[in-house]
Amino acid sequence: MLEFKKIEISDKEWVDRILSLSDYRGAEYNFTNLFIWDGTYKTQIGRFKDFMIIRTGSQGQRYYLYPPGRGNRREVLDEMIRDASLDDSAFSLIGLTRETKAQLEKIYPHSFKFKQERDSFDYIYDANRLSTLSGKKLQPKRNHLNYFVSNYNWSYEEFTPNKVDEVKEFSHEWCKRFDCDKLETLSWESCAVEKCLDYFEELKMKGGILRVDGQIVAYTVGEVLNSDTLVVHIEKAFTDVRGAYPMINREFVKRNAEGFKYINREDDIGDEGLRKAKESYYPAILLEKFTATLL
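Now predict its structure.
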């Protein structure tokens, strides 16, 4: 029988080790994302041999991530199916890519129905292009950058643990301006952001801060996702400071993406404004995601 527990910061070492065995590109396969969003998704984790088991939801409506790790995948999936049946839940796997979908179909031929989840697609960008914003398509971004450089007394600095309190103040002000407490998705996000900042040092985050006249106008937080990709978890800027978003984006990538091919900027959760913004950077890969439900 599988055993599950609430994810804790002390789990980071073993979770990172198992995730590295699969080297998946999806943003779900990251300790920080699992940890900071556990309140929203009711995430629990477990271990079966050299696999990590991840489930979300509550009794009667569970969802499982395709298991990262190594070994007999049929064996671990059978155990997961059994766990769902004991919980009176249909067995559903989330976060499947085309690669893991094909693996699942090979293990269980004609046993699952699949649904494409557009709102969960990850936006993955060429790291070099994101650091230079080169090319005709990104000319509008460079226009905003040029305006920012010409009109503001600005500076960029590394986000270090001693700056967490100041960044929190900025983050709270950002939420006031965008009415986070009135919008469910922003309310969920604000809780995840707060938890990420609370554990910034323990999570070993990388980050950047953008200032104008000494005051924070934008910040970002990310880390290594897999062998060739960085993931950006948080990016916040005051929208009345023209060019702040593309500037914090570019400066962070320039300083942290050496040796990496891609930047994963996660999904758009179905928000049209966010989708438009992420599409405007022209991703190199739009990582498709699927949900698989056992027939």
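The CA atoms of residues 55 and 64 lie 4 Å apart.
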